[in-house]
Design a protein that fits this description.
The chain contains six helices and no strands. It is mainly α and 168 residues long.
Length: 168
């Protein structure tokens, strides 16, 4: 059962990674189109900026959640790096628990924000503004899930990188 949960979370993380890849590609295409249309044709479409902002929001929040799972989120490790292994392991568990709590709070507060702003539409494209605001609770749930995974199972195992040949 636990290995099935771990595989499901890994599949979710892979789906998240690909969604980030697509959102960054779309964002870059929008910005490129905006620049070309503005400076070459002197007529920039209004939707490109709005779509780029939407993609940037997902790339930022999604990468935050993926960073929690993969351990590349920003944090200070000065105290934990100098601690004995047992203290370091306990400190990591405490940090994972706090991170899960912050994710839960982000999900709750984000959902309240979605509820308060429902009914609005974006200016240029006209998509429901909940689409943009719903990214916060989704990010919060993912942060909570990935932090809970680290808390229960430990950090996900990564494939060892091939060692570079030693040159003499």
């Amino acid at each position: 059962m636990m290995s099935a949960i771990r595989r499901l979370i890994s599949a979710l993380a892979a789906l998240l990674w690909w969604s980030l890849f697509v959102s960054i590609a779309v964002m870059l295409c929008c910005v490129t189109l905006q620049v070309v249309m503005r400076y070459v044709f002197h007529r920039a479409p209004s939707w490109t900026e709005e779509l780029a902002v939407l993609m940037f929001a997902w790339a930022s929040l999604g990468a935050l959640a993926l960073g929690v799972r993969e351990g590349f989120h920003v944090r200070l490790t000065l105290l934990l790096d100098t601690a004995p292994p047992a203290v370091r392991a306990a400190g990591e568990r405490v940090l994972d628990a706090v991170t899960a709590f912050v994710g839960a709070y982000l999900a709750w507060a984000g959902w309240r924000f979605v509820d308060m702003t429902s009914g609005s539409v974006s200016a240029a494209i006209g998509y429901p503004i909940e689409t943009l605001h719903f990214m916060a609770p989704v990010c919060g749930v993912l942060v909570m899930l990935f932090a809970a995974e680290r808390l229960v199972f430990g950090a996900p195992h990564k494939e060892p990188e091939a060692a570079a040949p030693v040159q003499m």
